[in-house]
Amino acid sequence: MTDIFLTTWNRPNFTERVIKAINDNTTSLYRLVVIDNASGFETQGLLKRSHEEGLINELVINKDNMGLEYTRQQATEMATTPRFVTTDSDCLPHKPWEDGDWLYCLNKLMDENPDFAAIACRTQVMIGSGNIFEHADEEDIPFVEFTCGGSLRLMDTGYIRSLGGWDRNQELRGNEEHYICGKIREAGLKCGFATFVPCYHLFGDGNWGYDKELSPEEHGHRPVHHPALTSGDDKQALKDYE
User: Fold this and answer.
1) Among 15, 182, 184, 212, which residue is least crowded by beta carbons within 10 Å?
2) Per-residue pLDDT band at 217 (split at 50, 70, 90)
3) What is d(CA 102, CA 93) in angstroms, rounded to the nearest whole number?
4) Is 92 helix (H, G, I), strand (E, B) or coil?
């Protein structure tokens, strides 16, 4: 059993697709906990219906938008399993393979590599970092050491708690991945991405799926320009995830 903590804030279309994909594509035992950061009526209605239908095991709705790091800390304190997953509402897990699903593969990687405290699924687009997988792909290396964000990231519960998690009162999104991965490395362990465990990072038709009126800074992203933000999601590629 592994706890999966999904942070949500608006984007109901993305959120619904992610909840469905987690349920459809996860054959390992899991408990899905959604922590919502004071979304609007439409998203909260969707979450409550999903909870009633059994697609969400536990639903936590914060009264205010406390920011991404706050919800990560909530997850750290709420986790009941030896490892837990933190993810955002724009990452779809891949459909299961013959030898297991995405969660099984991540757990197996951490079992075989106890020097890793966090391993995330590989997104199809790495904005701002270039192709960090070129050598790993060529040499069949199962993981790449790197700062890993909330793309279905599996973490060691006891270890993250021993580091204090994200308890620093950071407003809004912050740089949660840089913060926690920095603490992991400073303490002597590793973090990174699983080379052969993909997930699909949704972008919609631009602006990460948020309203066009919101600036990237307002929803917690850097104001970068990337083809993924304007070309839309690849409907053919999405068949492996939906």
Assistant:
1) 212
2) confident
3) 7
4) strand
Q: How many helices (H) and strands (E) does the chain have?
A: 8, 9
Which residues span the domain enclosing 225?
2-240
User: Of 130, 128, 110, which Cα lies nearest the Cα of 119?
Assistant: 110
How many domains is the chain built from?
A: 1
Both tokens of 216, joined, read 């990237």
Owner of token pair 């799926």:
209
Q: Yes or no: say if 170 and 67 are a contact pair by the CB < 8 Å rule.
A: yes
- The domain that holds 136 is classified in CATH as 3.90.550.10
Q: Tens digit of pLDDT for each residue in 22-57?
A: 999 999 999 999 999 999 999 999 999 999 999 999
Query: What is the gyration radius of the CA atoms in the chain, in angstroms?
Result: 17
Tokens of 224: 């970068």
Nearest-10 Cα torsion for 59, 67, 118, 148: 130
